[in-house]
DNA sequence: AATAGTCTTCTACATTTGTAGAAATACTTT
DNA sequence: AAAGTATTTCTACAAATGTAGAAGACTATT
């Protein structure tokens, strides 16, 4: 099961806030804010899809994510790689590195991450 | 305008074939193949969205992509990065490099790509 | 010319998504 | 207690998506 575009947006807010009440979620939307019922609907659907849970605090619901952003995102990317890059993460990585024109600093950072990874392999 | 999931799948076939007749497209689908009309519908919608064009060859249409895979994909990723990584390609890159556990060879390849990029910066 | 094969366009219909009003419920403040 | 505020659930509805039949047009064959 996957989230739709708008659900994803809401999920992002939730990840950022870690946990939130209706009100908090509404707040983070820029004007023109969607109707509160719209958010409610989305939250409901997301609960049905098992992406969101909540705790009762008094009688308010404090919502929180049931999947981590990392996890969600990793799956997402995996799908992309499968569809577009022959299921080869490396192919994807080189495409990405070549197309996304990173700054020198960014490249250096990346390089050192890769070097770390290489060291761990040993 | 974006392609839907199934349209994307079809587009992938088209990118692979470079250009193709109905028949060719149907062929690449694994059993159980979708109805030919389903493909037709998709192609039509993709034409409406300006992702596909065709040349008449005799009275057959030879379809071809109007956007490159690279291009399409780059946009796609850009969206992801915007949504999930604060619009920072570098942040994305490091997330990816850390989570996708690449083999030593793959890491080495990546490293040399990055070094090339760095050299070009000078 | 009659038949069969290939393809496109039209039409259709169920499902999912984006959006939100109406009504019910509970809490807060006057 | 009356009113206002916040929130949830129900219901609704338009648009997009997944899927495909019916009918028409053209080509190759018999």
What does this structure look like?
- The structure is a homodimer of 122-residue chains.
- Chain A starts with a helix and ends with a helix.
- Helices cover 64% and strands 10% of the residues of chain A.
- With 122 residues, chain A is mostly helical.
- Chain A is built from 6 helices and 2 strands, in the order H-H-H-E-E-H-H-H.
- In chain A, a hairpin with a 2-residue loop joins strand 1 and strand 2.
- The mean pLDDT of chain A is 91.
- Chain A has a two-stranded antiparallel sheet.
- The first copy, chain A, binds a DNA duplex (30 and 30 nucleotides) through helix 1 and helix 3.
Topology:
2 copies of one chain form a homodimer.
Chain A: H1 5-17, H2 22-28, H3 36-48, E1 52-57, E2 60-65, H4 69-84, H5 89-99, H6 104-121
Antiparallel strand pairs in A: 1-2
Chain A binds a DNA duplex (30 and 30 nucleotides) through α1 and α3.
Q: Average pLDDT across residues of chain A?
A: 91
By DSSP, the count of extended strands of chain A is 2
Shape of chain A: elongated
Summarize the main sheet of chain A: 2 strands, antiparallel
Determine the oligomeric state from the structure. homodimer
Q: Give the largest interface pair and sizes.
A: A-B, 37 and 37 residues
What's the end-to-end separation of chain A, in Å? 38 Å
Strands of the widest sheet of chain A, in order across it, are 1-2
Helical residues, percent of chain A: 55-70%
Helix-strand pattern of chain A: HHHEEHHH
């Amino acid at each position: 099961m996957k989230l739709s575009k708008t659900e994803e947006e809401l999920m992002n807010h939730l990840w950022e806030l870690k946990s939130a009440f209706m009100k908090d979620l509404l707040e983070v939307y820029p004007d023109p804010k969607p109707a509160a019922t719209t958010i409610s609907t989305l939250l409901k659907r997301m609960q049905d899809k098992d992406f969101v849970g909540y705790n009762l605090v008094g009688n308010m619901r404090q919502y929180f994510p049931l999947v981590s952003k990392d996890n969600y995102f990793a799956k997402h990317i995996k799908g992309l790689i499968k569809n577009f890059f022959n299921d080869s993460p490396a192919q994807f990585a080189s495409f990405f590195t070549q197309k996304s024109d990173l700054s020198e600093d960014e490249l250096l950072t990346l390089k050192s991450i890769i070097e770390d990874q290489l060291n761990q392999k040993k």
